Amino acid sequence: MESLLACARSWVKEHAGSQVPHLLRAEEWLRQINPAASEAMLLAALTHDMERAFPGPDSPKQDLSRGADDPLYLQAHSERSARIVGGFLREQQAPADLIEEVMALIRVHEVGGWPEADWVQAADSLSFLEVNVQPFLDMLSSTWAGWTPEAVRAKFSWMYSRIRLPEARQLAIPLYQQALEKLRQQEEHLKRPGEPKPSLQE
Predict the structure, then answer these.
(1) Domain of life, per the record (predicted)?
(2) Could you report the average pLDDT of every consecutive run of 10 residues in the chain (202 residues)?
(3) CA gap 179, 134 in Å, rounded
């Protein structure tokens, strides 16, 4: 079990760029909230966003006019990640049933739907709220891809509210509250151009 996970970690570290901390922490969060997590669950948590590491003509594009949780984008993102991770696992000669289970979990990592999928989704949200808040705040300064304070707030709220597991939601509350406070500070700074940027790091 650990050798395949170690191989997947190396693959993530080699290719995932700025997403490496989020993906590694998602696996760690899953181990914390569910010590009995299966190999398939751990692999899915670790690799769920890997399609972003391999941009191509079929890379999905988010449309913020459909909301920060654009369902068409999230479905295409999840399906593409599942295909790419499935290909990687086949290259590692992983068992076919394991590959299918990992791909199934990645396909629903944004929405959950059954116990194993809900654990993976919760780990994704916890990791996002812990390590992916700052990149979204940074996008406000450049108005990158149309991310406004309202859109970022909606993204943070969605990543928190989608958590189905009560025990995971309890762990997410302080992370969510910190994210909203950092957003408030960033909004205040943007209203006062020329002032030193506040420190938003913990």
Answers:
(1) Bacteria
(2) 92 97 98 98 98 97 88 97 98 98 98 97 98 91 75 95 97 98 90 56 40
(3) 8
pLDDT at 202: 37
- CA 176, distance to chain mean position in Å, is 14
Count other C-beta atoms under 10 Å from residue 158's C-beta.
14
Domain residues of the chain, as ranges?
Answer: 2-191
pTM for the structure as a whole = 0.91
Tell me the C-alpha distance between 56 and 51, whole Å. Answer: 9
Fold assignment, 2-191: Hypothetical protein af1432 (1.10.3210)
What are the CA-CA distances from residue 22 to residues 17, 26, 47 (Å)? 10, 6, 10
| Residue type for position 48 | H
Look up residue 115 and give its two tokens. 């116990």
**Coil vs helix vs strand at 180:** helix
User: How far is the C-alpha of 93 from the C-alpha of 83, rounded, in Å?
Assistant: 15
Q: What is the Cα Rg of the chain in Å?
A: 17
CB 26 within 8 A of CB 5: no
d(CA 49, CA 136): 16
Contact 16, 53 (CB under 8 A): yes
Question: CA-to-CA distance for 155 and 15, rounded, in angstroms?
Answer: 25
